[in-house]
Model the fold of this input.
Amino acid sequence: MSWWLVLAVAVVVLLALILLGWLQGIAEKRADQARIKVLRLAHEKFAQPVDREQLLSFGALMLLRNEQPTRILVSAKNKDDARDSMIEWWGITDAQTARETIQSLIIEGRRAHYQKDFLQLEHGASLSALKSFDGTDYLRWERAKEICKQEGLSFSSAATHTMAAYDYERIAWLARTCYQLEYLTLQEMWRCLAWVAQTAQAEFSSWSDYAASFVMGRAATFSGENCDDLTAKGVRTARELLSQEDGLLGRPHLWQEYPLAAITIPAEMLEFAMAEEDTHSHRRAQLLGFGALTGRAYGEPISDLKIPSSEPNGNEIWLANAWDVADTKTAVSRLEWLLDAGTRSEYEENFRKISRGAGVTELEGVRSADYVRLRHAKEQLIQAGMEDAHVSHCQSMLAYDLERAAYLARIAFAVGYLDEEYTLACLRRIASLARSTFTAWENYLTSFLLTQAFFNQDAERLKKLIKTGMTLLKIRSPFTEYGSPWQTHPLQDVAVLHVVRSVDMGTPAHP
Done:
């Protein structure tokens, strides 16, 4: 073959490749134009009113980083891919697991485990002083600070003293994604965003501080491939939200239109109360605060009078093992003992003396171990956020007996040992006794927890109960099933209707 023929073939091939590339470029350009047109139409169709659009600022950082629209509640990505991602990274498969996952982030998230060490890092603590971070975590954290400087993300000195925004942004992103996948209702999604907005505003003064907290929190606690690249991408995304235009819509990004401190939350989105229908239901719901601490600590639903077990015959087995209860007669006997005398009758005088400052040598029948556990429990409770006055002034063990009685009664009702009338009468008597001694749920909780520590050596159980109790007191969940009767019904507002004595409870009907 002559050289000119070879040259001609090469030229033809080259021209073909150029033409193919040109056509491919046109096709890609048209596809991009079509995608942009679809997204713009979607923004026009699904645009939210201002009072709601401002809440879409939360979750926007993760959505924009993942090349998702930020102003609307529809996804540009394949839903099957999104579902697979939820399963792989979060274990979310349905509505129940979606609510459980988001609720766990609301209660604790990464901040509960790492915040103390995170703050020590910011204050220059050595690695040997840290419990949750190792050398690799520290290096990621240092590199993240350098990346922020390189990318021009500025923030206040207080911004990186908390990693909370890492949890808050993930809550918002998960809520929006789970709504798209029909795992959450629209109301649940908005309530999640309202919760994030209210909580974030209390901790951050600006979006730049919020972004810094997210970036540094993620860098310090999330390991994996290409960590630095992902950190840089997150920083660039934050900077775009803070100072650049939304190229798709030709307008400023959400963070520029809605400064963090100026966001207002519609009142209806903050109504996280447990559902009630009428006066009868209201009075009944008021009593469900008793036994709620124990039930929630066991991970059981507490919104109904009956507290069900997740295991077959689990309640019957628990009653038999914990209380030697196997029928109506033994259930009533245990309840009457708890309400008439209980553990407090023998030990409360010593408990009062300890509260007044008595040393262990001044007490009869109190072991040093019990005394020390009580002292440590007071410290733990204050560290968890309980006011010092509630702890230092606690002189009653009553709540320990009342809470156990309430939980026992609701479990016994669930298995059929007690009827509804008797169970409600029992809870009314518990409410009457509680109101005569405690002014608020804080006092009730403190009494229960300190007595729990005095009698029980299980330190992990105490930690769980403290966390559960403080959650019932302070954390408002967007989800009805995780609502707190303590927040809905203050203790002194619980209606007893009349003075309830032991004889008023009568004898329950046999199943």
Q: What stands out?
A: Strands lie at 245-246, 251-252.
